[in-house]
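@here heads up, posting the sequence + SMILES for the flavin-adenine dinucleotide run so it's all in one place. Ping me if the SMILES looks off, I pulled it from an old spreadsheet.
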Amino acid sequence: MSDSCCGTTAIEIEQFTTTQQASALPVVVIGAGPVGLAAAAHLAERGIDFTLLEAGDRVAASMAQWGHVRVFSPWKYNVDAAARRLLEADGWMAPDADWLPTGAELIDDYLAPLAKLFGGKIRFGAKVSAISRLGYDRVRTAGREQAPFLIRLDDGTELQARAIIDASGTYTSPKVLGASGLPAHGEGEVFVDHALPDVLGADRDRFEGKRVLVVGAGHSAATTLLALAELDDTPITWAIRAGNATRAYGGGDADALPARGALGTRLRAHVESGRIRLLTGFFTHRINAIGQGVEVVSRDPSGHEQSVTVDRIVSATGYRPDHSIAAELRLDLDPVLGSTRTLAPLIDPNQHSCGTVPAHGADELAHPEPGYYAVGVKSYGRAPTFLMATGYEQVRSVVAALAGDWQATRDVQLDLPETGVCTSNLAEAQEQRVGLATGISGGLLSASLPLATVSAAESGGCCG
Ligand SMILES: Cc1cc2nc3c(=O)[nH]c(=O)nc-3n(C[C@H](O)[C@H](O)[C@H](O)COP(=O)(O)OP(=O)(O)OC[C@H]3O[C@@H](n4cnc5c(N)ncnc54)[C@H](O)[C@@H]3O)c2cc1C
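bot reply: prediction finished. Complex structure tokens:
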């Protein structure tokens, strides 16, 4: 029998796996970040066998990269309900519900103890390089739904699963510097720091006394710029695509959120005093390594060029999802955001901030490939409106679906106040409590830059 009139003769693949055999396989969760671990907690609670594959050699390897940054949502929104139940049964004491933890605190005080409960079900150093269906490429249909998933790791080993919860995040696929979404010429040949280096901590020596360029208009860029401004003899250049930084500064004294306004005001003051040199209309086009430094050349759409020569580049241009590992699966992706098409209007940064995204679950996350769910920040694609709390509700619903509990699947709820979780008010309050006024871990410095006033697509939005 042939698959097509003019193609190769198809090899008849036996129906080597019955539905029962496939359903006896574990669920594979990809990524031991907060959402992947929450998925594991829900699977454990429901008694569903699972294996969690984590590329890094530790829990929450991506979050560990920005461990020095204080988040702006307090503990009460950062702990998954099933994870809390499992941890409390093990004697865990929840941290102060109103405290804003750093990424490192989230790991040490919550995610690492949670991961310990799962023992050998988590495999570290297990980077997934591809997912398919056993014996099925993307085109083959008959019997597809009964075939187990095939997961290949980058060391070549393979395993099978009855379903996949892909919580691999977006942190490892930052957007490029090139202004049109393509890498700038030469971008791959120079070292570029991605968002939120620990400028005042572990990375200080690499920045102090160096000429630094920060590219991007969001809160990650602002956070890095304000930290750099604390270093002596460190010339700072800030490059944005927009014609001016008004939107990035926010409303200043008139801003609805005082701390947000203060952040923008501080940034503006540094620009106006000359401490930070602002380059507007900067469309990164080419990067040339020259001697010890790099020349970064902008070419705007009219062809006008400008350039700057620096020692270090920090790219704070945001993240995008990498769907390449699932290229052999049938995905239905929104052409703009790269989320599912059903989810896209619910998370659209033109309409929503983190706090106004409605609750959603398995129905909105489903692809034409039954049993494959991308969850967590990856599920949002390029939308910067993600919160851990929404990811926790996603995995509660997805695991309920895998358990066949359709009532729980569809009973999606989110207890997020429209304001108060995604704003810098909390950061300001903590600033007052602990007196942090400087440093990248400080409340104000980790406040989200203008949600309302900067195009989220430019800004990197509320969450980084
Ligand atoms: C600086 C910053 C501040 C933020 N602040 C907040 C906040 O205040 N409140 C809030 O709710 N949210 C915040 N967020 C957004 C979001 O909640 C976090 O990004 C969160 O870490 C997302 O969780 P995740 O589990 O979906 O993905 P991640 O935390 O990114 O975890 C993904 C995991 O998958 C692993 N992985 C990646 N690829 C593979 C692969 N191929 N195979 C196996 N493993 C893989 C990674 O190593 C990583 O451990 C912030 C984000 C950033 C960057």
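MO: Residues 7-14, 433-461 have pLDDT under 50 and may be disordered.
MO: One more: The longest strand covers residues 284-290.
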